[in-house]
Amino acid sequence: MSRHGTVRLGVPALVVALLVGGCGTPRSGDLGPAPSAPPTSTPPADRPEPTPTPVAEPTPPPTTRAPGPSAAASTGARRPDLVTIELWYVRAGRLVPTRRTRPATVATSRLALTELAAGPSPAEAATGMTTVLPAGVEVTRIADGVATLRVPSAGDPVTRRLREAQVVWTLTQFPTVRQVRLDGAASVDRADYTDLLPPIVVTGPVIGERVAAPLVVTGTADVFEATVSVRVLDSAGREVATGFGTASCGSGCRGGYRVQVGWRTTREQKGTIEVYEVSARDGSRINTTAVPVILTAGD
């Protein structure tokens, strides 16, 4: 075939190649960073649970959002949007966090205060968690990053301050709330109640959560040399894994920590995640926070 004939055949071939290439599978995009708080999984039913005139509130992005709605294949029912919120309860006179996943709502702060007043789940209550916030407390206004509301002043000063701290730490998880104004007083924020935190706070996992190895344990701590230790206990109380990490601040200041641990177990079972400080005096475990969970099998 002549050189000119080759050129005439090459043009259609090039067009076909371009059309086929245009039908390839698109590449996946970057999903971006994970939510600030990991989703809470629902434990099995027979095991511990994880556990002025009012105005419409702006819709703050939730701590964690579940996947968007989808149509069920058999019924065509729409799956509701969910929101995961952080709740700060009281244990031994200190603030401790947990989470709830509920149907999404535009009044997210109202939902949070309702859940806060409802109190801990049975599994959470078994660890000593309680609430001192009565039902009926609602945000009346959110403007310029300040949430305004009235909180009952009944009770002794210690209880009243714990009640205020529960409200402030719970509401300021939302981006639209930086401070809280209680009963017309000056605005306050989390820094005004940090003395009510225990030396070690565990934000994940939460009580009753079903966890798999490797597990990332997160929270904040104010401990000696900023060293945070973790151990995993099986249903018989045997130690199956240990780990440690360093908080971003310590020995007189509070910092965030993140410790990863793994374990091997042949069956799903109840377990406990213990987060503690090693005593500088005698090496014993002190300031321990225990989180009952469900350990999944892994090798």
TrEMBL record:
Low complexity composition bias: residue spans: 65-77
Ranges for region Disordered: 27-77
Pfam families documented for this protein: Germane, Gmad2
Ranges of biased composition (kind: Pro residues): 50-64
Domain GerMN residues, every copy: 109-191
Protein known as: Sporulation and spore germination protein
